[in-house]
Amino acid sequence: MIPRSRLLLGATFVALAAALACSDMVSPTRGTRYDWRLIVDYDSAGPRLDTLSFHWPRNRLPVRIWVEDSLELPSRVREGIALWKGALLYGEWDGVLVSDSATADVIVRLTQPPPQIPIRLAGRVLSCSGATDVDTVGTRFELAVPVRAYIFPTIPGAADLTQCLRTVAAHELGHTLGLFQHSSDSLDLMFSEPTARFLTERDVGTITNAYHFTADMFPVGP
Amino acid sequence: MRILPTTLALALVLPAALAGQARYGLTLGATGGTRLVTDRIFQDIEITQGLAPTVTLSASLPVSERERGGIEVALGFGKTRIKESGFPTVDGPDFKTLSITGGVQGPIISTLGWRFGAGLLKYLPEKEGIFRSGGPLLLILSGGADYRLPIRGPVGVVARLRYDYQRFNTDELQSSGFGRTQDVHRLGLGLGIEYQRP
Fold first, then answer.
1. If DSSP codes are grouped into helix, strand and coil, which group holds residue B9?
2. Do B51 and B80 meet the contact criterion of CB atoms below 8 Å apart?
3. Taking CB atoms and an 8 Å limit, are A25 and B168 in contact across chains?
């Protein structure tokens, strides 16, 4: 025979648990974003535009990034990796520096970019600039790997060069993640002439959307 | 004003007086639970938890002829899985939980006993993801059963079944704009040893 006090205790516990057990988490709207997708011309039946989305698939993570070891650029890129990685809740993207450029998914050079290629995303700040080339390999559904980014000082020895390189490295890294357009808001890191030191809510919303939007483009190579 | 000194004196004297019947335990086991997060970004996302290896330390003292009062401290090492429609299911961030519950336990029949308790649970800070900043102190309600098998003298083997309920949230989820909390029910099984001072 179970004593009444024990039954009462058990019943109280069950009642408490039942009373409390009625809540589900509510996810945020994440509507704050700019368009990140690549718009390309194609002419299979006359010139047309296509809007394409890219994000690194999980089986390609961590993305291997080779960085030219000059002006402490590897440190700036590491900071950029931490910034973008921290913006994503579920480990959607990760990057790691590698020593062999032959095995890299992304190559970051400290030099001016070569002559214009068809798709170049350029960012410019007062004392340094950057550019990222996107090569869709003829068929617009492929992204040629390694993706190449260029960062270079425009005013060598400028007092704010370190901060400029930090901002531009994070900005170009954003392009290599799949943000293939610039934001129209000057406060965003992905604005074409960025001054932001951190990601804004719009930057975070955009990268979050990009990594949960079905990708049309897939990395090819190396 | 005399309540506080009296309470303190009792708190010091009572355990000493009852220390002769104190029971200590150490169990190793696994804890599983219901989903931690539901989200929606174009499609539904669900973060579930896998079986978490759990270490539990316990101590109890008699509070009546049949019942004992005590505490349990548990450290769990969990893994998550991320299920998203249209995407492959992948491993999510790992996490650690630390909980402390105070409770009452007593016999059901023979060597089988019950336990009910309440306490606090914390998700410890991790390097990244939803557990990056850890979580707030969460209230947990727990209940379960113990099966004891004396081996030799004061030492015995114990098998523990534990259920607990919490309203899950983390600081990172809150700062990302998640509202309300997620009901999480967990069930754990442990096996270990107990020592009861004669």
1. helix
2. no
3. yes
- Is A12 inside any structural domain? no
* Residue range B42-101, pLDDT digits in tens: 999 999 999 999 999 999 999 998 899 999 999 999 999 999 988 889 999 899 999 999
Identity of the residue in A17, A23, A30 whose CB atom sits nearest the CB atom of B41: A30
Average pLDDT, chain B: 89
- State the complex-level ipTM: 0.78
CB A68 within 8 A of CB A26: no
The domain tally of chain A equals 1
Q: What is the mean pLDDT of residues B128-132?
A: 91
Interface with chain A: mutation pick from B38, B40, B41, highest number of A CBs within 10 Å: B41
CATH class of B3-196: mainly beta
Which residue shows structure tokens 């955009």? A206
Instruction: For residue A10, give how far its alpha carbon lies from the nearest alpha carbon of chain B (Å).
Output: 7
Interface contact B130-A213, CB threshold 8 A: no
pLDDT of residue B3: 45
The residue segments making up the domain with residue A67 are 30-220
C-beta separation of A155 from A126 below 8 A:
yes
Closest of B148, B97, B140 to residue B119, by C-alpha: B140
Residues in B closer than 8 angstroms to A13, CB to CB, are 116, 141, 143
A159 confidence band (pLDDT: 50, 70, 90): confident
**Domain assignment present for A49:** yes
CA closest to A26 among chain B residues: B179
